[in-house]
Amino acid sequence: MKLAVFIVFLAAAAAQDKLPRPPPLHREQFRVIYEWRTVDFEWESPKDRETFLNTSRYIPQNVLISGINFYKDNIFLTLPRMLDGVPATLAYIPTNQNDTTAPKLKPFPSWSANTMDDCYALQFVQNIEIDRNGMMWILDNGRVGTLTQSPNAKCPPSIVLIDLKTGENKLERYPLPADIVNPSTTYLNDLVVDNRDGDFAYITDNSAVDPGIIVFRLSDKKSWKLRDTKSMSSVPEAAIFRINGTTVNLPVNIDGIAMGPQFLTEDETVDRTVYYCPLASFNMYAINASVLRNESLAVMGEGALRPYVVNLGTKASQTDGMKMDSTGALFFGLIGNSTIAEWNTTVDFRTGQRTIARDPNYIQWVDRFTFDDRGNLYVIVNRLYNFVKNQVSVDEVNYRILRSYTGLKSYIYAEDLMPEKPPQSSAAAPTLAASLLVYALARLFA
């Protein structure tokens, strides 16, 4: 038995040597580049703004900035319709803004494409990703008013695609089947995109009753959901958040997700590691993308995923959003500590985490990260704890975008590896071996 374990460790070390190693660290201090007390828009006319205000279709303190992404000369921002009065749920600002104090947002792709109760338009966008082909992947929950007493589930949860390269900005909507996600309870929270073998999205659903990872394959528009109660559910000891004297109870399930660079498995096939964590948890988990792609595991139900999930260890606090760069460095927030942290994934998680920014005044609930094409890392800070408690003050700065130069790019642009052997027809054997390697890596420095 000891010999077998030793062999696994040797294989793990060999796999680790094949992973791209981050270059020497060169980090610039995070700086505030934009900030808002409340969010306003570039309206088609002053009369439209007045009409929206008078009819409560625009309630400034109810507009929360959540997600962020970058493409060419624009920063895209998501504005989830948790409360009433959010006139647009996806918007952008040009990167060459002169006004750093609350630039006005432009609805994307248009005002009409953000019309409430129009199921062909965007309803509730929590997050987006833009892949290496210029395709914007949009998570539209469909259900609006999730923090109100009467959420409206008129429109189905959907994946919406916009090809940014063409400039036409047409919406391609793919509703998720009701037998995969329940329209009344699902909450499509975050995603990563894998531009291999037909393009896949791995999506966290932090549904209070059915959390899991949804897999969407673009080539045939097929989706399935994988569940693992132990790693994807909130835990009571992490459900209480304390930030700057404010306490909030948020027993939220699987939330943040990130994906590492490609690596060659023991049998010389290409794989990637997907990292995730519940919001109300101190643990970080990992699973191989090849496992998530195995649709038969979804059919098998609860328990089928458990052998492939690796518990990497604990963090100092809870994490919402996180992002991987192209070399395998993971950036994530530690909410209770007002901290931004970094982990080089080629070393043990429990000893390899390090703080790169800490500030109780400016780093109040890190929500999402993104990279631009110039080596900058952007961070959304949105004081979500005040928003969910209905304590947003319009006299204080509530939303900030921070930026730091890293010289690196998003995981989207990680190096493509070529398998030395053709993929095997059976998914179970290689994915199990690859998962053992991930587990061995996690244990190698214990």
From TrEMBL:
It is found in: Secreted. InterPro entries: 6-blade_b-propeller_TolB-like, MRJP/yellow-related. Residues 1-15 form the signal peptide. One of its GO terms (cellular component) is extracellular region. The keyword Repressor does not apply. It comes from the Eukaryota. Pfam families: MRJP (PF03022). Keywords: Secreted, Signal. Belongs to the major royal jelly protein family. This is Jg20741 protein. It comes from Pararge aegeria aegeria. The gene is jg20741.
